[in-house]
Specification:
By secondary structure, the chain is of the alpha+beta class. The chain folds into 3 domains: about 100 residues, 2-Layer Sandwich (Phosphorylase Kinase, domain 1), CATH 3.30.200.20; about 180 residues, Transferase(Phosphotransferase), domain 1, CATH 1.10.510; about 110 residues, no CATH class. Helix content is about 40%, strand content about 15%. The strands form 3 sheets. A 6-stranded antiparallel beta sheet has the order 1-2-3-4-6-5, with helices on one face. Helix 3 packs antiparallel against helix 9 and helix 8 runs antiparallel to helix 9. The longest helix has about 55 residues. The radius of gyration is 41 Å and the shape is rod-shaped.
């Protein structure tokens, strides 16, 4: 087919700049209109024009010219060009500077891959909601708008056609032609197979895996997403679900895929959290406690206004004072029991009942009480540390139980 110099519609003319690409049924040109605006133009090849291909091309134009979704190709103009005595329909569309295949060749970071896949889902869903099944989804048929950082689903040439079309091509064409249908669902490869929107679900599953791993999955043992992007490992279960051999076992709609993306992510995060919780070790708790680590000692004694005043090595706490007052089983002078001693920071006071009692109160009362109080306090601190450790273990066990419950619920939910 010799490239024409000009294409004309009822209201515009488009001069050919160069040939962009060539497919099984036609060619795509870079063209420029009278105002100097550049577009892409797709035209059926006169050597391959058939009644069936015209019908498909007409359906593609009708669908795309009514489109207003940003992730679906929009036809902006169309007409008929005569070549070699044949009427060859064509349509004009925006000129995009790349395809998903080009992005895959360069490599996609995981976060961009999932964002682009979400755009594809939006585009395919928009088509499905208009009862249009694409049936030929592959990276080459998804265009890339670098200015808007957006993917656009294109090439609806075999949407809404007889179920035997792909089967015929697979059976009769050579190996190079077969490569174009590597993303076809199993039902597209058997004669008489019912091909509907779930074929698109199958293709999307293959593309999702390839967007992360760079490989199109075949059979079992293929490279999985979790192996290259652990934070996105939850997508592997979804990929396997989407590429089930039986269409009835796949997600029934794009909306179901979107819900599964959210649900499986939650389940995956829950599983990760559970594994982390189960692997968490509660250490034996031992906090810093100066009164336990450096027991109280008597550093000096004074007498003022009828009271003995004891100077202590450091300020005491209310808990330590309680331990002092709970001292029992210690012989001491009558009238000087532990409860009679009053504490204020690093001093203790007791009223001297008899003038000659001072040395006995120091040696047989306060020093003995001090020793037992330090021992009581050490045991008290140990019990508190054990309590803290026990409560931490109980809290961890409760978290594990709650996360296990959450995971059971997430697995059981059917959206």
């Amino acid at each position: 087919m010799k490239s024409p110099a000009l294409f004309e519609t009822a209201f515009a003319s488009y001069a050919v700049v160069d040939l962009i690409g060539e497919g099984g049924a036609g060619r795509v040109y870079r063209v420029r209109d009278e105002a100097g605006q550049t577009y892409a133009l797709k035209c059926l090849d006169p050597e391959k024009v058939t009644t069936e291909k015209r019908k498909r091309f007409r359906n593609e134009i009708r669908f795309c010219e009514r489109n207003d979704h940003p992730n679906v190709l929009t036809v902006q103009d169309h007409g008929v060009h005569r070549a070699d005595g044949k009427a060859c329909p064509f349509y004009v569309m925006p000129l995009y500077n790349g395809t998903l295949r080009g992005l895959l060749t360069k490599g996609l970071p995981p976060e961009r891959a999932l964002r682009y896949f979400a755009q594809m889902l939006d585009g395919v869903e928009a088509a499905h909601l208009k009862a249009c099944w694409h049936r030929d989804l592959k990276p080459e048929n998804v265009l890339f708008d670098s200015g808007a950082d957006r993917l656009v689903v294109a090439d609806f040439g075999i949407a809404h056609i007889g179920e035997d079309f792909l089967c015929t091509l697979v059976e009769t064409a050579d190996h190079a032609r077969l490569a174009n249908f590597q993303y076809a669902a199993p039902e597209q490869r058997v004669r008489g197979g019912k091909v509907d929107h779930r074929a698109d679900v199958f293709s999307l599953g293959l593309i999702l895996n390839e967007m992360f791993t760079g490989e199109r999955p075949e059979g079992s043992g293929h490279k999985v997403i979790g192996a290259v992007a652990p934070d996105y490992a939850y997508l592997d279960d979804l990929v396997e679900l989407m590429r089930r051999q039986n269409p009835a076992d796949r997600p029934a709609s794009i909306d179901e895929i979107k819900r599964a993306l959210i649900g499986r992510k939650n389940e995956f995060v829950s599983r990760q959290r559970l594994e982390k919780l189960k692997g968490e070790v509660v250490p034996a708790f031992r906090g810093d406690d100066p009164l336990r680590d450096s027991p109280i000692t008597l550093t000096g004694v004074d007498y003022q206004k009828g009271e003995l005043i004891f100077q202590l090595s450091q300020p005491v706490s209310p808990e330590w004072v309680t331990c002092f007052r709970e001292v029992t089983n210690v012989e001491y002078m009558g009238g000087y029991e532990p409860a009679e001693f009053r504490f204020d920071r690093n001093t203790a006071k007791v009223r001297l009942l008899r003038e000659n009692d001072y040395q006995g109160v120091i040696d047989y009362c306060f020093k003995r009480f001090l020793l037992r109080a330090n021992e009581n306090y050490a045991r008290y601190v140990e019990r508190e540390e054990q309590r803290i450790e026990r409560e931490a273990r109980q809290a961890l066990q409760a978290k594990v139980a709650e996360e296990e419950k959450r995971q059971r619920i997430l697995k059981a939910i059917r959206i």
